[in-house]
Input
Amino acid sequence: MASMSRRKFLAATGVTAGAVATQGLFPAVLRAQGEPLRIGCPLPLTGPFAALAADMQRGAQLAQDELNAKGGVMGRKVEVLFRDDELKPAVGAQRTKELIENQKCQFIVGGLAAHVQMAINEQTKKSKVLFISTSQSDEISAKPDTSPITFHEALNPTITSRVMGTWIAQNLGKKWWIIYADYAWGKQNNAVLQDTLQKNGGTLLGATPYPLGSAEFSAHLPKIQAAKPDVLVNVAPGADNVALHKQIKSFGMDKTMKLAQPLLWISYLKEGGPELYQDVYGGINWYWELQDSIPSARKFVEASLKKFNMPPGDYGAYSYSGVLEVARGVELAKSTDAEAVANALRKSPVYDHFKGKEWWRACDNKAMQDMWIVKGRGPGKTKGDWGLMDIVAKVAADEKYDRTCAEKGHA
Amino acid sequence: MASLGALSSLVGRHPVAAFGVFFALFPFLMPYKALASQVLIFGLFALGFNLLYGYTGLLSFGHAAYYGLGAYGTGIALAKLKIGSLWLGLAAGPLLAVLGGVAIGFFCLRRRGIYFAMLTLAFAQLLYFVAFHLSDVTGGDDGLRGIPLLPLNLFGWKIDLEGSLAFYYFSFALVWLAVAGLKRILDSPFGAVLQAIRENGDRASACGYDVNRVKHLSFVFSAFFAGLAGGLDALRLAVVPVESLYWVTSGQVVIMTLLGGAGTFFGPFVGAGTYLVLGDRLAAFTERWPLVIGLIFMAFVLFLPKGIWGTLVAKLPGGNAAGVKP
Amino acid sequence: MDISLAAALPQIFTGLVLGMLFVLLAIGLSLIFGLMTVVNFSHGALYMLGAYCTVFLLGFTRNFWVALLVAPLIVGTFGLLIERFLIRRLYGRHPDDPLLLTFGLSLVLIETAKLIWGKIGLTLDPPRELGGAVNLGFMAFPAYRLFVIAVTVLVLFGLWAFLTRTNVGLIIRAGSRDPLMVRALGIDLNRIWLLVFGIGCGLAGLAGALAGPMRGAYAEMGVNMVIESFVVVVVGGMGSLLGAVVAGILMGQVVGITTYFAPKAAEIMVFVVMALVLLVRPSGLFGEAGLAE
Output
């Protein structure tokens, strides 16, 4: 509190006694008066995950509107600036530089692809700007990539695959075949799935990598069909996921084995259609029908329906939460300094913006959160345009699902 | 008009000095300093490409290979091998790129024309997939992260390069040296043979020049400049994304050079500047930036093949002084 | 490693289907290059357009057969426009220029596709009649894929008949051997080039239309295909149609087999094969030395 009154005093004298002369000495002070609080949001608005990015953009806009309706943060209007990172790390890094240097953003929320958000993170670390990452990644909260001002809101492969893996082994079958995209996210999920299967006493009949983006699976499917697994677990993102399910169906394999994946994305469920995703099991961080049981979800869904005529999706929820957390941190710390805000968030780590209780784990700034197991509703059973999934089970947040602090390189 | 002519002939006669003056002031002309560094580094990349395409007449569609090798060379040296010296780390980049240039040049130069272009593309793609899968060394598709920007040790002083302006002037010094180096190459008899090959390879051969050796050497020089650009970029971004080797990056440098003016001295920098600044400013307004640049590029190929600078130079009086086209 | 016949045959068939797509693309590229010495970088984008047009027509007419017939025609017509209004301007200029122009064109087409059809890609289903799997005795293979093989063989046969049995076909073959002589005989090559470009693009569109139900339609689908198709053409020999067919089938098998045995190397294999072929036979398997070297 002493620092606040000192700042107010200095601000008063600064304004009355030659603003130009003091501007160089107390820039943060003068910026604080009336200037909007800018949050930079790099996302892949173009490229294969554009639908998820559009969802994220809507979520961030809802958060911005909500904050400004309450009078802003510390009296300052909140402005979220969106930039297209084109799903490329070099572009993401450059846009982040522009947001920080040119637009004077003091916080960055965003990043969808793991490799892009790591490039963004290198820039925010350099410029000492707080970064809340909304991308699925194991590395971002671990050494050496992470930092005291790097926060991770989204789920990561370890959590997702441990949760899903355990549930699949206990409920769908213990003989698996895994098909996974041969890149970082795919490999991480595959490793955790195999480990989880083993710990649950299951058998791995085979694991097949495929080159990301090359949606040609018919080379592998006959072999898998012949092996007769209980469950075919796939780690295929985006358009690959849709293509894979089509090809699985064309071989008739959906009739002879259960289908599951670590994550189900509502945007791709919509694209593929209920017939394709019928009875496909997956994990999800949030689904709009949760509004029936969670008050903060209801508030979020209503705001989205009002502004966008559609419910928010899984990724929109991450960015919504990220922006609100920046605001909460600034209010707590009474400052926009990255370290101060980071410390404030760690001191009061619990929050609930859209899904019930979440909290930041102190050692690695990881958001611990509940997860749900969902499955695709068949044709005829869907509700409206977006009622595409059945909620099968809830898995409560537990730090045991992620790697331990020690495993991540923190003391 | 007369003073314009005098100015342009002055620039034509002292291109390296003109470059130095302009780019010393450049960061203050840009909306933010980090953009100036990006223009400088990509300008250098395009400079390397231009040596091969504009001056020697060989269209390489896989130049990202040398930029990428340069970036990975520096990145691996500093992040994985933990070499403690900025100079050595930075030198590792162009060194790796030169090795790549020697090897790939050997293969590709066995063919000419379109075959050559497609071969360079294919080798760059090969390197891309290798880097993608060698994740222990390169970080795979997550990219090589954690590249430290070590302080500069100059005559006993330790200069911190973290600030945008400090890094800019460090890059500027190196790029300026590279530009001076290019001028030396172009002014030399070797440079004359290069341009002779561009005009008519068979005739140059008939004159007794070892065309293949000259082409190969040009290829290697070109790889050096591209590799230095890559190394500097690794320091600038603190990461080396695997996309550095992807054909899109190769395409970008082709577009930049054509936009600026192939076969001219300043063309590459004009092209890089136009492309990057336009992209930066437009990206704040629209997602359609790639569409816009595609249309602009096509228009240039059809109607302005000399590029911005090339067309300017052709129109201005006194622009063709002293042998080297500015 | 299980190398029994039962395991190998599905792989061979899968590689064959991919090979058919390669053949269609490579033939188009080779025809255009052989006759006009133009490298059409936008071939991949036209492949993508073929897939999108099929989705569009399917929505319009609800008839897959109509869509499959008309989509390549649309793309081929679009190819005619490209030749007439864009490529033709570049004749007499530097031989690299058409490559640069078509490179820019491919960027524009990809972005335009996103603009028109959205960024996420569209789903496309094979017709009911071809939806299931056919029991070939040793394995069950998706019927649609057999259809793709059948269609390609039919089209190749038709193309061969066209080139060897018609006057126009004769002119095309003569023109790729010696354009100067053909001109000297008073034949208007402009018309022929227009036609050939259109046919080449139409073939790309057909490949895309056939690929759509297998992989869906999305803006970047042609990007890797075009590079791999170039590799096929280089291996087969630029300008050689037989080379395009042989190399296309060969490369399809290379990808199929490597995917089975060593999935990580699958993407690299095509380039390795290309490098090896070029070391041993620089003009490609069936190419003629001296053709634009």
